[in-house]
């Protein structure tokens, strides 16, 4: 029996397979987009914002605005250090 291959079953080149482009194209697009994002981030960095008033947990008694922020500062310090939030 002779080995007969019809044109529809003949192997095709890898770049002519649609499934290959679906498998490789998605991740390649993500890698390309990450390099574009890196380029934009390096070319246009965010400016550093300087604040007039820097608050700490000890300065909570300085005024009404800082007293209002004391619970948020204590919670932030607790989340950052894992220590007690009340300082007791």
TrEMBL record:
- Give the UniProt keywords, A-Z: Membrane, Transmembrane, Transmembrane helix
TM region(s), chain numbering? 20-42
Q: Report the domain of life of the source organism.
A: Bacteria
What is the name of the protein in this document? Nitrogen fixation protein FixH
């Amino acid at each position: 029996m002779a080995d007969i291959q019809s044109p529809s079953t003949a192997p095709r080149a890898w770049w002519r397979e649609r499934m290959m482009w679906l498998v490789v194209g998605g991740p390649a697009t993500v890698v390309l987009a990450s390099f574009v994002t890196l380029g934009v981030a390096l070319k246009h960095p965010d400016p550093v914002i300087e604040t007039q008033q820097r608050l700490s947990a000890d300065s909570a008694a300085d005024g009404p605005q800082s007293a209002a922020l004391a619970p948020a500062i204590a919670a932030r310090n607790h989340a950052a250090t894992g220590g007690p939030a009340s300082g007791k």
